[in-house]
Amino acid sequence: MFKAFTRLPMMVQTLRSSIASDGLSFFATFWRRRTALAAENLFLRKFVFSRLARWFDWRGALLIVKPATFIGWHRNVFRLFWRWKSRPVGRPRVTSELRNLIRRLAAENLTRGEQRIAGELLLKLQIRLSPRTVA
After folding, report:
1. CA angle at 39 for the pair 37 and 42, rounded to the nearest 5°
2. What is the 3-state secondary structure (H, E, C) of 53-84?
């Protein structure tokens, strides 16, 4: 309980400095152009951005784009999202050539197990398959 009272002067000082800086910013708005004010209002609507504005020069990061450009960006992101969302799930299919090769390796030496065949495919041909797929 007493810790809260020891932090109180620091919190009051922070609040005072915040109010003072906001007041100065408010009076400085009278000398700025209307487009700059509109951009600042748009930026400061979000609480997180308003707190980050103290450490980040956001005026240099703003862009003015045409609506068609913005819609094009949105379409591209939406297209990429759905391409990612509808990607195939599961193991990739084993080609018929690779299946024939595995059968031939197993037929040539009956003592080879699936673990050894999978190891040979990886070592010699750089084809990574699990022993269970080989089986």
Report:
1. 110
2. CCCCCHHHCCCCCCHHHHHHHHHHHHHHHHHH
| Three-state secondary structure call for residue 43 | helix
Residue 46 has what DSSP assignment?
S
Q: What is the pLDDT of residues 85-107, one digit of tens each?
A: 888 887 778 888 888 888 888 88
Q: Which residues of 110-120 are buried (b: 16+ CB within 10 A; e: fewer)?
A: eeeebeebbee
CA angle at 60 for the pair 55 and 64, rounded to the nearest 5°: 135
At 34-70, the pLDDT tens digits run: 777 777 777 666 666 667 667 777 677 777 888 899 8
Q: What's the predicted TM-score (pTM) here?
A: 0.35
Q: How many CB atoms lie within 10 A of CB 134?
A: 22
Task: Collect all residues with Cβ–Cβ distance below 8 Å to 64 and sequence separation of at least 6.
Answer: none
Give the Cα separation of 89 and 91 in Å (integer).
Answer: 7
Tokens of 38: 């509109």
* Nearest Cα residue to 119 out of 101, 104, 100, 134: 134
